Structures
1.
Amino acid sequence: MVKSTTKDAQDLFHSLRSAYVATPTNLKIIDLYVCFAVFTALIQVAYMALVGSFPFNSFLSGVLSCIGTAVLAVCLRIQVNKENKEFKDLAPERAFADFVLCNLVLHLVIINFLG
Amino acid sequence: MMNLSRSVALISLFLLPLLSFSFSVDNPTDRRVLVLLDDLSLKSSHSIFFNNLKSRGFDLDFKLADDSKLALQRYGQYLFDGLIIFAPSTERLGGSLDSKSIADFVDSGRDLILSADTSASDLIRGIATECGVDFDEDSSAMVIDHTSFSVSDVDGDHTLIAADDLVKSDVILGKAKIEAPVLFRGVAHSLNPTNNLVFKVLSASPSAYSANPSSKLSSPPQLTGSAISLVSVMQARNNARVVISGSLQLFSDRSGVQKAGSQNQYEKSGNEQFVTELSKWVFHERGHLKAGSLVHHRVGETDEPAIYRIKDDLEFSVEIYEWSGKSWEPYVANDVQVQFYMMSPYVLKTLSADKKGLFHTSFKVPDVYGVFQFKVEYEKLGYTTLSLSKQIPVRPYRHNEYERFIPTAYPYYGACFTTMAGFFVFSFVYLYHK
């Protein structure tokens, strides 16, 4: 039983990897951007755990900018993905325009709250 | 006729400034004192005391206690600044005086010396109770002390006691130490324990008790030891001063005392010095303080702001003067404190004095906002109470007064700008990749 679970895990991993390679390039670019944003947020949380939360508003502002832009990128990915039946009629340019405007508003708020 | 009335008017015009001889805020020593006696021979038996008062500038008005023309006020104005009642056996005071009018007299800020003796009447006891002093209920009781009596006691019943348990206060008893014991022969009194304005100036020794000297003791005496006060003093909240003594002989001219069991024989008893210094205190020649207004401002400025911000540095100062009997001298002490108070003191600092009577300190406004008060509450034994306060609001930071560019937060600033740059690069790459 033990051997089969490790073999199952390996098979699962390989099938996921091969499926992922098949995704279109623009979705992979979005995924890369999301990973970068989340990684930056994790670095900030680790820093706060080390130093303490003194300028708490700055901490919140930094983390929110990363998480917010990651969330917006995920929304863009959902809307742009051709396999998604729900957004079949939505033009990908419209989705990208929404993404850009929301990001502009987000970063305006972040800079104001940064202190 | 016209000439006469005109000249009378002119003369009264000249006399008008002389009529304003009473104590005032600028000159707090009393001037005119009414002395009530129940026996005019007291004028000669207590001549040293009265002559001493007259030589210090007091206007003494001697009257019998049941004189029907007695009046403290006329047309709503008080005629006297001080009252001395040396009439222990008077049942009713004459004229318009009674215990209520005497209580009103003290309530108006004027001073009183009251002396009881072996036959104290109910009227005198009543006046004393108003001031927080309770005389022994037994009207025939006297203070007896078998170890601290005076050797010159002729009756031999040890009722003439030589007391030296004086209160330690330079302002009440003067700087010079009273070396000789004070002779006392009279009734005992105790202080009401709930009254915190009255205190003992001369207390009996622990071996004293209050009982009838001519009869056998049937039960243990109620008043004993140091609970017996011989001379007490009260300073009311309006700074009126009252001295209550259990013996009229304390004020009389007497000399020569030797305390039983001690080697020292003094030619002069301490009575004269004691009553002189006490009368200086009670008639506001000493120990009367006056404070100027409270001044506060931010460090580096001179104007008083209308509102402070939290964590401001401010400086506070107040001027306090002491009346020396003739002029206002700067007051020097190291225990005047200021509180920065809102429901409870957030800051309590002792003010440092310079030689000119200016007390000052500086501190940081606490990190709490609201409406505060600068409070100076000074209650020292024997001095007038100072109760000053000034209100000032404290506000939090304005939105542009917070710290900016905090070094600890540089990683967060960096993260935000990196994210913005990443977004910019991403949108280019997303749009133009092939």
Note: Residues 14 and 42 of chain A are 28 Å apart (CA to CA).
2.
Amino acid sequence: MENWSLISLCVLLGLTARWAVSFHSYSGAGKPPMFGDYEAQRHWQEVTYNLPVHEWYFNTTNNDLNYWGLDYPPLTAYHSLVCAYVAKLLNPEWVELYASRGYESHSHKLFMRATVLFTDILIYIPAVLLYCFYFCDGSSKQKVATAFCILLYPGLILIDYGHFQYNSVSLGLALWGILGLGLGWDLFGSLAFTLALNYKQMELYHSLPFFCYLLGKCIKQGLTWRGFFHLFKISMTVLVTFALCWMPFLSDPKQPLQVLHRLFPVGRGLFEDKVANTWCSLNVLIKIKTLLSRETQLFLSFALTLLFVLPSSLKLLSKPTLWQFKLALVNTSLAFFLFSFQVHEKSILLVALPVCLVFNEIPLIATWFLLTSTFSMLPLLLKDGLLLPYVVTSLAFLFLSLYLLSALERSTEEELRLGLYRKLTQRWLPKLNLSRIIKWKFWFSLAAMAALSFTSVWLKPPAKLPDLFPVLVSVLSFLHFLGFIIYFNQVQLMEPQRKKSQKKTN
Amino acid sequence: TVMAAPVTNDQSWFFALALGVSFLKCLLINAYHSTDFEVHRNWLALTHSLPAAQWYYEATSEWTLDYPPLFAWFEYGLSHIARFFDKEMLVVQNLNYASPATILFQRLSVIVADVVFFYAVKECCKCLREDKGKDLLGKPSFILTVLLLWNFGLLIVDHIHFQYNGFLFGVLLLSIARHFQNRHFEGALLFSILLNLKHIYLYIAPAYGIYLLRCFCFTQSNADGSLQWRSFSVVRLVTLGTIVLSTFSVSFGPFIALGQLPQVLSRLFPFKRGLCHAYWAPNIWALYNIADKAFSILGVKFKLLDINKLPKASMTGGLVQEFQHSVLPSVSPLATLICTVLSILPALFRIWHRPNGARGFLRCLVICALGSFMFGWHVHEKAILMAILPLSLLAVESREDARIFLILSITGHYSLFPLLFTTQVAHQNISHVAIYNLHIGNVILHLFFRKGGALLNPLEATYLLGLIPLELICEFVYPLTVWQKTFPFLPLMLTSVYCALGVTYAFIRLYISLLTCSDSTKKIKTQ
């Protein structure tokens, strides 16, 4: 009874925060002719409702792909279709072909926000609660506190309920996948993750750890028929799920190829806008985007990503535990974010999800990372007019994680898992208090981020450098992320086997 | 004193709750605001740009100054900070001026003024009988803090709708806390300041008057709790009188000196309004109106009444200000006044005869607030907060009061919804925020009283659960039906009548608890 009340309190507060963010502006509000992601989602409803399936991904007379053409996998399209049916029921104007382009009204905004809330309640929130209750150590109060902090992660709230996207669906499905694997329901886990992948292709960032974990588990069962059979079952699940998702597109070989072409637009270049990854930051010094040929860029990004992904994947393959799995998810997705081709600033949410999962173990670093990830999206949020919710939710999140999870107190050297750093400094500076240094760095970096947020809002950039502040934001966040990827790799690779068994809850 | 039990050292949760709710308030800065926003902007402008002598004559805006002078001075003080945000908001002629800086300033002023409320709640927590449970959810002070700081009504009325009630209730609660702490002079001073900030608190003045006279001016009681006439202290009465009079003279003095008193009073007490607000507050008159409608419909049906002789408004109305009764006698302001006085008299007699300490006084205060809400003239539904907030103090100490509180707060807060469900759909988001919040207090209270079974009996629980289908019908089903066009006011009427039942029930139960309660203070003193 008490647990239930606490959970309902934490969910209620989470919903309150979400709904309170949601009456702020969305991306492209009142900005014709292209508007923004909000219009993209609405347009997909319009397209999927009015056109036959085989026209969805093609440039036809009725489907102008240059105007927010569908570039997400089929599940997103189906989701849009379902939303469109509801929309049609409520107000046919919302999804009328052509005529509804750029449609904006209060009731439509309410409807769109409600669809986000609905999927969030259906998929993401229960997954978070289940995760915290099965896989977080500590008292039930601490579990609720962790769940509460995860639910209030500002990045996801701001992008889903402010900017407007359905990240809670793909991330929620991925989280269900992680839950499945953690509970030992491998088939269910791979099903959920395949769905996630079919909702948003960016989930590929998470796919390698899933693969390595499952493969490692099969290998562990022995290379006899038992291991193979398990592997067979998993791959069949994945294949069948894929086939079901892509069924309408399988009639004609041109169809899936076109969909793939839409999903992976290599032609759009190494990066767009200002994103806090290596290429964009490097571009400040060397104009790689123009200097190198497209093929070299592709090769370079592929090689570097592989280089950074490999150690953690191999480690996971040899030791498929949940803890390793979570860290591998962090490392792989972060490597993809930093080095891969065509990265969006919002993709940092894919890294944020697994970082949320280590919240209870490494609260300070997780808080730090999550705040940085929100900060890295600042230019986007400012463009959408979300300054106020950005400031308020970030401060609230900082305060809550420090207060509820006592992030600052639970940060001894051991708890921060600084094994490698200790070894490095032991010889020359044996008396160095690493934990204190980390705390100082934490506050210093927060101060820097606050100062930069402040200047980007209040100061006008010099006329010569109109993009000065967005670039500074992305470089600063990039430096942070670089530090984080080294740290998390260090944690994953150096960590001795933890004493507590992760499976004890089963 | 006996009341002020020591509170544990670790008070960080209080800070966390206060900060948390402040964050939520900040998120609501850009939310929709009602005309009260413009009202207060206008007051800022007129106090800033005009001499005090013209404050109560200025009528450029239709929202003339109708709060007592101290509040005007409060606005005057605020206006000096407002200058740094946007000077244009301080121009009287800029009607409906709402630049982003203006909104930010006005919202922040409410949020910051709530610091008074925080302090008052903290003081109230000190007055509770703290039990020794280590569990945070077992602490009455924690529960009280949640109930007050996260109060749903205040959040709506202040931070969405726009008013300064948090600040005003802060003064009220602080004054109550001072009486609990036996610092009666301070309590009286605070209350007279409060009266000069907003005169609606006159409704609870009788409780203050009787309590101070009985328990403070008479220094002793007989062994059985009855009055000891000889113990009357003239010094105390004179001091109290001086305090009250000097506050009033500071506030109203200048206007009396200018000979403006009649003008000021006519602004403060406009009796031109109707019996009920456009939307009926859930009180006796809502039930009276509905009974009148029912009788007239029945009368027409059984040919007892001639439909042409009925006043027109009675068949179409609900949304008209002047409501004419067709069967039952029409109600005059004087009648409501008499009803109000009659409704609170027994409570006043009770605390005169058996004072029952500060808790008895608090109970009487709640009854005064609720009585005036039930029977008052042109009551606004917001006024229910005057009963709900002080009742929170009692609710965390006894199961019976918690039960009354639950019924009163749910129905009272629910009746505030129509404030949000305005014609524009956009604002529905906000009301949903509100719905989530409504439950926080209930869950918390249930957690607190989890030992000893359910708080409500099945009938009460069914009644409260009935609000859910009511909400669904009024919000989603009814707009789709054909009656929406002909009787658009029906959902509002239904809501207000349904809530009126709950409020009336809570009022009766509260009365019973006052008249039958045993002398609880005596028990504590003997412990």
Note: Chain A touches chain B through 31 residues (CB under 8 Å).
